[in-house]
Amino acid sequence: MIALTVLFPWGHFGVDSCKEGGNLQKTILATLALFACGFSTSCSSGTNNFDPDIIAMERNALDRWGKGDPQGYLEIYAPEVTYFDPFIEKRTDGLEAMRKYLAPIAGKVKVDRYDMIDPRVERRGDVAVLSYNLISYGKKPDGTEAVLARWNSTKVYGRIGGRWKIIHDHWSLIKPDLKQPIGE
Fold this sequence. Notes:
Elements: E1 2-8, E2 11-17, H1 22-44, H2 52-65, H3 71-74, E3 77-84, E4 92-93, H4 95-102, E5 113-124, E6 127-139, E7 145-160, E8 163-173
Parallel strand pairs: 3-8
Antiparallel strand pairs: 1-2, 3-4, 5-6, 6-7, 7-8
């Protein structure tokens, strides 16, 4: 006699096999195994490390940002967006606060090109986290190219009304040059 246990996320199911009635039991086991494989595949498919829609939205906002237009981000921020970057002392809350924060920058940012490095999207239902590194480049007066900034970026997107919106945006500098306080 052989005992077989099939494990499911919510428990297990055991079947004993013997010569008599083995065909029915084998059929049941095969069906249960196929069901278990199909169930585990459908449950795990929520993770996607490359979501072209979210990455395309981010690239569009970056393209506009590089031309001095923060509206690309403002259009995809949720009303309740939260925001951090290394130049503010505390979190910025809400779309109106972001409009005020970005207004003085409008028309002043110039990025000739950028590299979005290793974008990764982790998606769970109606929430997705996008993370990537960003290297921004600009032209010097002599025409040569220079790195303007090196960023870590993390965005949390939520599906609101059937559309992806940024609900949290966090920027930090890649390996910032930290200065030691005087006296240490």
